[in-house]
Amino acid sequence: MNRDRPMNPKNRQANHPNSKNKPSEQMKQTKQKHTEKIKNKLPENLRNQEHQIQEQRTEEETEFMQIEGKNPIIEALRAGQQMDKILIAEGLHQIDEIKQLASERGVKYQFVTRQKIEQIATTKVNQGLIAFVAHAQYIEMDQWLDSLDMSKNPVVVMLAELQDPHNVGSIIRSAEASGVAGVVIAKHRSVGITATVAKSSAGAVAHMPIIRVTNLAQSLEEMKARGFWVVGTDAKADKHYYDIQYNMPTVLIIGSEGKGMGPLLEKKCDYLTKIPMLGNVTSLNASVAAGIMLFEIVKQRLR
User: Fold this and answer.
1) How far apart are CA 81 and CA 103, in angstroms?
2) Could you report the per-residue pLDDT of 195-206, keeping only the tens digit for each?
């Protein structure tokens, strides 16, 4: 008669749920050090990207995100953004506008020590002010499209896989200043609206409709069906950005500095343009390129 070989008593003890034969604290620390060692060998851009993703994940897991600095907080209050409270460093001057806006909107503010501010702050340019605001409310594509007046030739910015929150914030700032009707971002492989984005936008994110979509290419088709024309940038394009007449509903695609907008989005463009470069550097920061093109549109429309 065949029988299963009995389990070795040592193995049985090790597999018992109450076994004390578990990884020691020293083993855990060794594993953690090994992981950190591997991370430190990564290129700096990959380490930064991992930090940004972790920062975004942490922010998205909390009910409120914090924004720092005078202008972002003022703009969030003016826009009526849901806000839990504001922390103000003791002895801070020129904060009457913040206190007045907060009182008008029923937002409580609290004076704390500068040390407390520095302990909580995530940036070095907090100006002694931290506010806790509700996460950005993204708008559904269909709802947003229905709200547009196409007779006014709206301009839309689409961000293709931008992962630097400083770049995204700066682009939103330029977009708001140039009268853009909305900014479209992807749910995946792209930074969302985080505290760093809000700070970099100087508060403009509080006034800008943000449309977050699953598929950028599909969203482009929806916008084209509504009458939009799509403009992208490519260093090999024949036309310069100022050769296009922007007297039409326009989607301006801004690609990441490394990958650009990608071949799929490029195929859906009605126009490909380039920004002339005279120096040795062959590309611009994404937010700089966006600013140049957006204010060319402003210039043309003010003629």
Assistant:
1) 14
2) 788 878 877 888
